[in-house]
Design brief:
- The relative contact order is 0.20.
- A hairpin with a 2-residue loop joins strand 1 (3-7) and strand 2.
- 39% of the residues lie in helices and 22% in strands.
- The chain is built from seven helices and nine strands; from the N terminus they run E-E-H-H-E-E-E-E-E-H-H-H-E-H-H-E.
Length: 209
């Protein structure tokens, strides 16, 4: 019989070579984006929120999980590397499965907002991000002012980091596309294409246990 899989309320027909074709696309578009970022903390579980809090009150890193601007969470954590003049917007996901679709959609939306804001004159949404973070004690105005915060985001090179933890798969298998979830693989391939079209720099990082 004919097999299908459901994605975004649409059924996609699976032909015989679908899985091998998908893996080829994954290794061509996603595998080379894997990096070992030194600022990525080891997993402390059991929940994503516990992990995200590791970035709170650290030099040049900010815990921004659930801080929303116009109902959109722009990242789970933000790290500034002042020496390299890099701003890393980190999005965390525990498990590489069907929920990867939600993550890639969120990261793409957030990246578009941030890139548009960086080019805009007033940077209203980035100012809102700082204010919301400050009001929730995620940013200390005595350490970094709003102008400094916005300056780092807009003048530094920006990179959107998908930080993935999966206790069932070694990082080499995830990088090579050796995992079962078609939706996760399909979502990451589409995400990579969309980010390239929008000229947004991204990377994927496996969180150590």
């Amino acid at each position: 019989g004919i097999s299908y899989f459901l994605l975004d309320n649409r059924w996609h027909r699976l032909h015989n070579a679908f899985d091998s074709d998908l893996t080829i696309k994954y290794t061509g578009k996603v595998s080379d984006k894997f990096k070992d970022h030194p600022f990525i903390q080891d997993w402390n579980g059991p929940e994503e929120t516990d992990y995200n809090k590791l970035y709170d009150n650290q030099p040049n890193s900010f815990y921004l999980h659930l801080i929303k601007v116009d109902y959109v969470e722009l990242c789970d954590a933000l790290v500034f590397d002042r020496q390299k003049r890099q701003a890393y917007f980190i999005h965390v996901k525990d498990g590489i499965g069907a929920t990867m679709r939600d993550l890639t959609s969120q990261v793409h939306m957030a990246a578009r907002i941030i890139e548009e804001e960086a080019r805009s004159e007033y940077k209203t949404k980035l100012a809102k991000l700082y204010d919301q973070a400050s009001n929730n004690n995620r940013v200390n105005p005595q350490i970094i002012t709003r102008d400094e915060f916005l300056q780092c985001i807009t003048s530094f090179k920006r990179e959107y980091v998908l930080a993935i933890h999966d206790s069932t798969k070694p990082s080499q298998d995830i990088q090579a596309g050796k995992f079962e979830s078609r939706i996760a693989k399909f979502s990451l391939v589409e995400f990579a294409s969309a980010m390239r079209i929008n000229d947004c720099n991204f990377s994927v990082c496996c969180i150590g246990s």
